[in-house]
Design brief:
There is one protein chain. This protein has a two-stranded antiparallel ribbon with strand order 1-2. α7 packs antiparallel against α17. Helix content is 72%, strand content 1%. It is globular. It has one domain. The protein contains 18 helices and two strands. It has 505 residues and is mainly α.
Length: 505
């Protein structure tokens, strides 16, 4: 079937009343989570996954997509009003967003942020719709060696996303790969690391791990914090000026929005880059292209438009490798892949052929989700910022209850609840000691695939990996792996040398 043969039924599914309602609920939930400092898009998607269990796959994926898109935008509200980004994607938004608030122009800043987020989101959805099917067709030519290398490429992202040093990231990655070996060996049928518990024969369930690492850990963090509110000064959350941008503001920023959206899509497709990098790159590019670069950091609306367009454009871009190749380029898409597998959908070419109607429904729904969060943002921004005043003694128990229900509901097995608490405590201490939990997620998702395809490759080539080098696609992926590993190392080496030279001067 052609793309249009899937596209037309997808339109019908998206505009069903039940689908519109789900998109609305997902958008509201994403906005709330995004606006709460300390919480993240990853946490929002992880908490939403249990809700999709039992739903029609099309509806369930629409919910996840809506939460993902709107949570990225939601972080800009507190970034602008109180200089506290709701998510790390909105850090660059504080540079000019908060100075505008200090000037009494918070409404203008939020209006530009909402418009830029809409533009970035729509362009990213268009890019996903155009690029993903083409890449999926290319993936049909993949054999065991190519899928093995694709898995390695995904694992190489650990180098790029590691916080606190590469060694820490690699150690956590190896720990995650060790956990991923739990369960029955698919080749020999021998049980590994199950500790006489048959519930572990299928391996560590992905959902309790995801919710524990990204959601329950934040609830623990909030609970041990001495503050009664998630922000320091909740009384400061107020503004009264116009939110809808004026024509002059649009005229000043439309080029910046388009340029930053393209940057965001490209960065999103690159595994390991993420929203923060896209936001900072677009901010610097906007400043470089501006006629008044000295005004950046003092309340320039282009300084708000650039990062917001870019980080929302990352959403669609990051789903390109996730849906077509199964490579989670960041923590959110790793969790998203977890949601796909729970629905019985394996990322790859089959998503665009065998499950084409489901996949294209998701792609079309992203357009609607972006429009929906913009409309809701313009209409209810003043109300949404009040959510940040939620007392921690209310917020933490809500997250805990949702986490427990979500983990138990999939298999109705209390072992999953214990795993949830175990990963939650692990995630809390990892954050305290500056370890990123994302390598564990990548290892849990990609580890079984890498192991299986590696053994198939050895079987196919009679125990030798040399023939892999002479397969064009395999060789190209090997080059990408080398670049993915070496580039961050060289970048940090150059940065270190620059700091040394500056110090000596």
């Amino acid at each position: 079937m052609t793309m249009m043969e899937y596209f037309i039924p997808a339109l019908g599914h998206v505009f069903e009343p039940a689908s519109i309602f789900i998109l609305f609920v997902g958008t509201i939930a994403g906005l709330i989570i995004g606006a709460l400092p300390g919480l993240s898009s990853t946490m929002g998607v992880a908490l939403a996954i249990p809700l999709t269990f039992g739903m029609d796959p099309k509806v369930g994926l629409m919910l996840l997509g809506a939460v993902y898109c709107s949570s990225v935008y939601g972080g800009s509200l507190t970034a602008i009003l109180i200089r506290t980004p709701g998510t790390d994607a909105s850090i660059a938004t504080t540079f000019d967003g908060f100075p505008l608030t200090q000037q009494g122009l918070a409404g203008k800043a939020i209006g530009i942020s909402t418009t830029a987020s809409l533009v970035g989101g729509i362009i990213s959805a268009m890019a996903l719709l155009c690029i993903a099917p083409f890449l999926a067709k290319m993936a049909l030519k993949f054999g065991p060696s190519e899928y093995f290398l694709v898995g390695l490429f995904g694992l190489s992202v650990i180098i790029s996303i590691s916080t606190g040093g590469y060694l820490k990231g690699l150690l956590i990655g190896f720990f995650g790969l060790l956990i991923a070996t739990t369960g029955m060996d698919n080749f020999t049928g021998f049980p590994r690391f199950i500790f006489n518990n048959d519930s572990l024969l299928d391996g560590i369930p992905i959902l309790p791990a995801l919710i524990g690492l990204f959601s329950l850990s934040q609830a623990i963090k909030i609970s041990v914090n001495d503050r009664t509110s998630i922000i320091v000064n909740p009384e400061s959350l107020k503004f009264s000026d116009r939110i809808i941008p004026e024509k002059e503001d649009i005229r000043r920023t439309w080029k910046t929005m388009l340029r930053s959206s393209v940057i965001g899509v490209i960065v999103g497709i690159m595994p390991g880059a993420g929203t923060s990098i896209a936001a900072f790159l677009s901010y610097n590019e906007a400043k470089r292209a501006s006629k008044n670069p000295e005004s950046f950091g003092k309340g320039n609306i282009e300084g708000v438009a650039a990062p917001e367009a870019a980080n929302n454009a990352v959403t669609g871009g990051s789903l390109v490798p996730a849906l077509t190749l199964g490579i989670p380029g960041n923590a959110v898409t790793a969790v998203f892949i977890g949601g796909l597998t729970i629905q019985g959908l394996i990322p790859g070419p089959n998503l665009f052929t065998k499950y084409g109607e489901i996949t294209y429904t998701l792609l079309v729904s992203l357009f609607v989700a972006n429009i929906m969060f913009a409309v809701i943002g313009f209409a209810f921004a003043k109300q949404f910022v009040k959510i940040v005043k939620t007392p921690t003694k209310v917020l933490a128990p809500i997250i805990c209850v949702l986490s427990v229900i979500g983990s138990y509901s999939i298999r109705n097995n209390f072992l999953d609840v214990w795993l949830l608490f175990g990963f939650g405590v692990l995630g809390y201490f990892m954050e305290r000691f500056n370890f990123s939990p994302t390598p564990i997620v990548l290892a849990l998702i990609l580890g079984p695939m890498v192991e299986a395809e590696f053994r198939r490759t050895l079987t196919l080539f009679h125990g030798s990996l040399v023939p892999v080098l002479f397969r064009p696609i395999s060789f190209f992926i090997i080059v990408l792996i080398i670049i993915s590993v070496v580039f961050p190392l060289l970048r940090d080496f150059r940065k270190g040398r620059q700091l040394t030279n500056d110090w000596s001067d």
